[in-house]
Design brief:
With 496 residues, this protein is of the alpha+beta class. It contains 16 helices and 17 strands. α7 crosses α9.
């Protein structure tokens, strides 16, 4: 629970503006809590496993009982280092833990151990695409801290239960500058950050279980004015709700200002049932938490050789892989970004290329037809019925002229539905080989030209699009077996 810095006017000079909403510029910053994938908690040996019976995984250290002392989890530090390396951040050689004091039923110590003045990860950035436009969001920091417990309200009539299993779970809180200018940018940023933390293995990214929780700081202003008062939307645990909550908050703030009201700094919650945000409490500033260095924890010192050791164990990062796809395969930056949405998808593309697929054609099929079917069936690439090797074989047949596009779609459908498993066998069984009889094709061309005098006249009159109609008629007459490129050239020759 960190506060995005509230005085960004200096940094915001020259920052790009986004699309105006009813004459207002939208300013969005994010604070994201990524639960680290350690087996034990940040300062104790208690388990972090999800789903255990309430209050069975909170030990004396998590509760700060007398006589206990916290001990830093080395695995949590290594995961912080991995994030810093992935985001191009500065990893502090010395950082300090502090006590953040506030009182809430699910905070057993009456304070939270966090980092304040000197966080472990400083600066960095996250780049992503909104449509085909690349955006970059600057980061302020990422700091280590422990999670609080959980208050349970729905299972008790007139009472609340407290489950402390989550207390002490290691978190990285990742804080951005207020660089986002639309809901689309905010959601795209969150998706990219989610991809990065799961790609490098520091967080499982399970939003339903609370492993990846986002708080959005939203304000609006007239262009050129100073930053407006922000309201923080807490605990957005799905991208769909994130979009709905931010859109509603923007509209609510503009309505309030247009009606002559004043925006009060507050923490708000989103209700997915009503689609509305509501104020939970007045938003605290850092002075309200009375931070001071934790007397039980020495400074965290990270040696340079430790950083180098972690760096050597890092997987190829998605941005590096995307750059390689652009450099080695001639893909656009946008296509490369689409193919590196996850390790499994990137492996699928790599395996298809290894199987002989032309990279650009493979990319088109993966980001087009395959993505459409995966989304429709709500499955991941790992569950795709068409293997990378099969796609590679299919694309090879398209590239060598064996399969026109229409025939290729028929083969793909057979592969996807399990009607067949071998591309060449399906081509034979469905008689999809291209028409190689020059005489038969020439006869079809002459017949189409004779029956479509209007298209012929329009083409000869300078309307290039009229040729498409003639090509379509030839393809139909040939049962899709003719090569469209060959048909186009032959038609042009006959009509010249």
């Amino acid at each position: 629970m960190s506060e995005t810095v509230n005085t960004f006017e200096a940094q915001q000079q020259g920052r790009p503006t986004g699309p105006l909403v009813r004459g207002y510029e939208v300013i969005i910053g994010f604070e994201t809590h990524a639960q680290l994938s350690t087996a034990s908690k940040i300062f104790s040996r208690a388990s972090t496993a999800f789903g255990a019976e309430p209050n069975t995984q909170a030990c004396a250290v998590d509760l700060a009982l007398p006589g206990t002392l916290p001990v830093m989890n080395k695995g949590a530090v290594e995961r912080a280092i991995r994030l810093g390396l992935a985001l191009g951040s500065h990893i502090a050689p010395r950082s300090v833990f502090a006590r953040k004091n506030y009182f809430y039923p699910d905070l057993p110590k009456g304070y939270q151990i966090s980092q304040f003045e000197i966080p472990v990860v400083q600066g960095g950035s996250v780049s992503f695409f909104v449509g085909e436009e690349q955006k970059t969001v600057r980061l302020v920091r990422a700091h280590l801290e422990e999670d609080a417990g959980k208050s349970l309200h729905e299972d008790f009539v007139g009472q609340s239960g407290i489950d402390l299993n989550r207390a002490g779970t290691p978190l990285l809180e990742i804080v951005t500058e207020p660089d986002m200018r639309s809901t689309a940018e905010a959601v795209a940023y969150a998706k990219e950050l989610h991809k990065i933390v799961t790609w490098i293995g520091i967080c499982d990214g399970n939003m339903q279980e609370g492993s990846f929780r986002c708080d959005a700081n939203v304000s609006v202003r007239r262009p050129g004015e100073k930053l407006g008062t922000r309201r923080e939307i807490k605990n957005l645990n799905s991208f769909k709700f994130m979009q709905q909550a931010i859109d509603y908050e923007i509209s609510w703030q503009i309505d309030t200002l247009e009606d002559g009201g004043k925006i009060e700094q507050a923490t708000v919650l989103f209700n997915p049932d009503t689609g509305e945000t509501r104020a939970m409490r007045a938003k605290e500033d850092s002075s309200d938490y009375r931070y001071f260095p934790d007397p039980d924890l020495p400074p965290l010192v990270i040696a340079a050789d430790w950083i180098e050791r972690v760096k050597a164990e890092m997987p190829e990062l998605p941005r590096v892989m995307a750059e390689r796809y652009v450099r080695d395969h001639g893909l656009s930056a946008y296509d490369a970004a689409q193919l590196t949405q996850g390790p499994a998808l990137a492996r699928y593309f790599d395996d298809a290329v290894k199987a002989g697929a032309t990279p650009k054609l493979a990319s088109n099929w993966i980001t087009g037809e395959i993505a459409r079917r995966l989304n429709a069936q709500e499955i991941g690439i790992e569950a795709a019925p068409v293997s990378a090797a099969q796609l590679g074989q299919l694309v090879k047949r398209i590239a060598d002229g064996t399969l026109p596009n229409n025939a290729a779609r028929q083969v793909f459908e057979a592969l996807w539905t399990g009607e067949g498993s071998d591309v060449d066998a399906i081509i034979e069984a469905k008689d999809l080989k291209p028409m190689n009889d020059a005489g038969a094709l020439d006869a079809i061309l002459d017949e189409v030209i004779a029956k479509n005098a209007k298209n012929v006249e329009e083409y000869r009159g300078g309307k290039e699009k009229a040729l498409n109609g003639l090509v379509g008629q030839v393809m139909k007459a040939s049962g899709g077996k003719a090569n469209p490129a060959q048909v186009t050239e032959l038609l042009k020759a006959k009509l010249a």
